[in-house]
Amino acid sequence: MNVNSAATILNKLLKEKRPDTFNSSWVRKNAPAVYRFIQTYIRTETGSIDWDRFTLSLDREFQKRWIAPRRKRAKPYRNKGEVGIVLQKYHDKLYTFLTPADKNDKHVRDVISITMVRIAQKGNVTALQEIVRLLSFTIDDWIDRNPKISRWRGYDHLIRKLIEGCIRRYRYSGTFIGYLFKTLEYAGRGLMPIHTYSLDDTLYSGEKRRIDSIGQDPETGKLSFFGRNIDAR
After folding, report:
1. Is the pTM of this model over 0.85?
2. Whether 134 and 210 share a structural domain
3. Which of 9, 36, 65, 107 is the most buried (most CB within 10 A)?
4. The total number of structural domains that make up the chain
5. What are 202's strand-pairing partners?
């Protein structure tokens, strides 16, 4: 048995029994062979059963019905070792947070992000900082490419708070990346776009750049823009 065959068995069983929700106890009772396989072979880098990796292989409709094990309220701590194990294992795949090339890259990104989120949920502040950093690359790309997320441009402080909130609340209803995207999409609907300007932008006539219109008043020595003094205090 491997992950794919175990998922196939459980998908078939879920289609037959159609439970509204299911959890690890349901799997142990209704598919003991699958449960033993998961318990033996599907483990996280820190040694616990990796239900996230397994449920990620199930049909989408059943991913939404999965009830993850409850987690105790975590006390903050720092452990670079836990984070280092993950980063070392996937060090050549971290580019997927910036430029995933295909579905396989996106799947790897899902695995890395969920693994890091689970470690952060245990209270590891180092893991929290690292996953926020990695997800920031992904969000920057979404802002540049996706109109639904573009209105978050310039709201860096709010983005960090939103990422941390998603990490705290995430249980399991699909991938963490998908959950983060939808949260950004819905939460961003009330944001007013922040317009940013560059001094290299072309002005209305198309003949001058914005920087060309900045000079110095010969009498006061102050900077001027379109002939108006700029108070640079």
Report:
1. no
2. no
3. 65
4. 3
5. 209
